[in-house]
Model the fold of this input.
Amino acid sequence: MNTRRYISSLLDSVDYIDMHVHMEETSPGDVHTSILHFANAVDEESYGKTLALAAKARSVIPMFGIHPVRAPQHEMTAERLESLILQNDFVGEIGLDYFWIEDTGTYAKQREVFETQLAIVGKHGKIPSIHTKGAEDEVLRMLREHRITNAIIHWYSGPETLIDGYLDAGCSFTVGPDIFTGSRVYARLPAERIFAETDNPTGVPWVLGGEPHGDDIMKIYRELSSRSGIAERTLIEIIKQNLRDLMSR
Done:
């Protein structure tokens, strides 16, 4: 399937885009058809479950990637890894984590797995969703080394001094649930590089408490609209156009 063409065909029928969510435990009946869901995997098992959901819910875009927390257990052959990445134009969640993952003994394996995935992404022009927590300098360096100019930086909370470097490298950013608690990363971003995400099922509950809801991305749009002064309807169209532009690079 041509993923970009398929996504383009859906954009007129949705209002909101959740650029980073995990849906392997979601049932088809809980998928909002007015939301385009970029459903990131963390390993092959979660990807398989997400594929099964996407077969029943057309607004779910299944993405494959090896998350840094899964990297230490990664034993997949290079051929298998590449074949999974090539199934979709969007890849994720991949990256490095030196913050939540405190075992420094895993860091070399994290770097190895991330490097391998970046090489495939760069070779085939895929669009990666990148985890950077605690490793922001290193991730930026690796994106530059692999000449990745279309990365989506997932829920960035690192040093604001690096944001310009990421922008210069061609990256876009998602605005995450921490906008409710005062994050001003969005204020450092040009409108044409902004997306929004929930990182559910854990993201919004982690920040606000309670349970995740299928319409949480709408709340993030409304909060971003309020804080940025951009009308919500205008913000909806800006983010749709950002996705079109990203896919056309």
